[in-house]
Design brief:
It is a single chain. The chain is built from 8 helices and 18 strands. It has about 375 residues and is an alpha+beta fold. Strands 1, 2, 3, 4, 7, 16, 17 and 18 form an 8-stranded mixed beta sheet that branches. About 5% of the residues have low confidence.
């Protein structure tokens, strides 16, 4: 008999929750505290609203840019989520936090948390060492180097993905599950960002887009190779997908005020300013990076505004920063086989919700993105 298990997937780049935000002066401590408490309230509200029995939370940039100072704060953040009264009915928790920043060759700053509701009996997690699934019980917390943890696969991208630029802590982390006889992979991903708006304008697609494409293709190949039996998979994280900047600027140049700013000492272009009030669905057509992967992955329709870069000013929760073109960086992607195991009701109301968390409060520079759905499963 076909059954359904309500699932909630959430991805959140939480770097700005931990950064010092020194430019806010004396306000910084109060604002950071307010942003974090609002973040928690919005997350718990989402859980209350959708009532999932399985929750997967994927974090990127754990500890922020100043991670050597902020990792203790990050650990408290994870503990506060897990121990909150709102999560009391989730009696099993698996937490994986890569905070071993001293190992620069493997540090990814990724964190993944999985919550299992007390009513969910038939759930197993994969052990990549013995190549078998084991029943999940209790609180399982792994913080530090995850190299010896057998229930997670973690990998930092090799330097040849990004040979011309400063190295960073980007990579992916995978866990593998069986929920009521339905197996699936859950992959936390953090891809490369655009280091320069001007370089991003030089070509279509940009060099940054090309590098992200190589890295994402590598991840998909790794989780689909013959090392383990391939399963339906969900990839969710900060893909750093950007709009096709050159095409966008060319379009704006015909319909908006464009100002080019040059350096005083030379004619070198320092910045390009385009100003136009635009609706989100018009600029969505410049969101092209996923199209290179239509053979293997898909996505629910995007009906929400770009998830980045929101102003970190606590008093301006819906305003974007003007340092970057707003884009849908934070995504929940899936294999075609994963889309097939999402239950869709026949009646008008959709059982699938793909949206941002905290649209009207400050959540940092990224709005978390969530996918709520009923997973097709078998038995009780």
């Amino acid at each position: 008999m076909e059954m359904y298990t309500d699932v909630l997937l959430v991805t959140a780049n939480v770097g700005s929750l931990f950064d010092n935000m020194e430019h806010y002066g004396v306000l910084k401590e109060a604002w950071v505290g307010e942003i974090e408490s609002d973040w928690m309230r919005e997350f718990f509200g989402t859980v209350q609203s959708h009532k999932p029995r399985f929750i997967a939370l994927h974090f990127q940039e754990v500890g922020g840019k100043d991670y050597m100072v902020n990792m203790g704060h990050a650990e408290n953040f994870f503990c506060n989520i897990e121990s909150n009264e709102e999560m009391r009915d989730f009696d099993r928790v698996c937490t994986y936090v890569d905070n071993h920043f001293k190992n620069v060759d493997s540090f990814t700053a990724l964190g993944s948390m999985y919550f299992i509701h007390k009513s969910l009996k038939n759930i197993y997690q994969y052990d990549f060492n013995v190549k078998d699934f084991k029943a999940v019980s209790g609180q399982n917390k792994y913080v530090g180097s995850l190299d010896e943890v057998t229930t997670v696969e973690k990998e930092k991208f090799l330097k040849n993905f990004w040979p011309d630029f400063k190295w960073s802590r980007k990579g992916f982390m995978r866990t593998r599950w069986i929920i009521h006889n339905q197996g699936l992979d859950l992959v936390n991903v953090h891809l490369f960002h655009d280091a320069s708006n001007l370089i991003a304008c030089n070509a279509s697609p940009s060099i940054y887009s090309d590098n992200r494409q190589k890295a994402l293709r590598y991840v998909i190949n790794r989780i689909s190779d013959s090392s383990y039996t391939p399963l339906p998979f969900f990839l969710f994280g900060d893909f750093n997908f950007r709009l096709d900047t050159l095409s966008l600027v060319q379009n704006l140049s015909t319909s908006a005020v464009v100002q080019t700013v040059t350096k005083d000492s030379s004619n070198e272009v320092e910045k390009i300013i385009c100003e136009q009030k635009d609706n989100d669905h018009k600029i969505l057509k410049y969101d092209k990076e996923i199209s290179a992967f239509q053979d293997v992955i898909t996505e629910e329709d995007i009906l929400f505004p770009p998830s980045y870069p929101y102003c970190e000013d606590y008093t301006k929760p819906t305003q974007y920063m003007n340092t970057r073109c707003p884009s849908w960086c934070d995504r929940i992607l899936m294999s075609h086989t994963a889309q097939d195991i999402i239950h869709r009701r026949d009646e008008g109301a959709s059982s699938v919700v793909y949206n941002t968390m905290g649209p009207n409060v400050c959540m940092g520079d990224h709005k978390p993105v969530f996918l709520s759905f009923a997973l097709k499963t078998n038995g009780h």
